[in-house]
């Protein structure tokens, strides 16, 4: 009797062990199957969230030469979280269009990429000319000159044989700085003419600007000759004007004040003969006005008598 009970108990335990093993095997197989869809759902949610914040931008896949129409192989789409203002967002917006200057790989394309003229030509107004002047740490406002600043151009004339009295005067007021070295400012539509692609490049550009030796100014076309004479006549210095003068952009381009400012700039330059590298103009000989010059003979003095 005892042997039979032992056999029955052993059989029950054996069946229970088989059932427990099978159940454990089933659970071990179902756990990764159940977890896998959850992981995929999370990853898909992250990707979907990133796609909503990123926008497509047309970027050049390689360097392109000027005057050659772009093809689909020249451009690609990149999704960026920060989209440059005015950039193209579809491939067909760029294909078939012709850039007028060479563009490097990685350039974000916009409407200005296909405009004629270089950066300086797109930074000046029709009545202005871009003219470069030499600067150093002193004449260029201590190396703090920045594109977009407005400066007064001062001229210092030393005393010499052609200039009996030294003088200092403002040659041109409220002139816009277009570039300092290779650091360019904004174009007429408010876009950066040259935008650094990384923080390291921006730091190097700032260091080069501090040690620049040339600055390009937007000079009104009627005053171009005046500034050219000033650069050859004496020493120029640039005095930076306050950023709180809000109407400086209209100083030479305003409809009402521009003409008055232009006339004042021409009149305010005193002793202009000094800029022309010539001596002062002598007045006409008095007597016989409007007639032919009188020829004087040799005067002979004998005591209190004179003869010719």
TrEMBL record:
<dbReference type="Pfam" id="PF08666">
    <property type="entry name" value="SAF"/>
</dbReference>
<dbReference type="InterPro" id="IPR017592">
    <property type="entry name" value="Pilus_assmbl_Flp-typ_CpaB"/>
</dbReference>
<protein>
    <submittedName>
        <fullName>Flp pilus assembly protein CpaB</fullName>
    </submittedName>
</protein>
<dbReference type="Pfam" id="PF16976">
    <property type="entry name" value="RcpC"/>
</dbReference>
<feature type="domain" description="SAF">
    <location>
        <begin position="55"/>
        <end position="115"/>
    </location>
</feature>
<dbReference type="InterPro" id="IPR031571">
    <property type="entry name" value="RcpC_dom"/>
</dbReference>
<dbReference type="InterPro" id="IPR013974">
    <property type="entry name" value="SAF"/>
</dbReference>
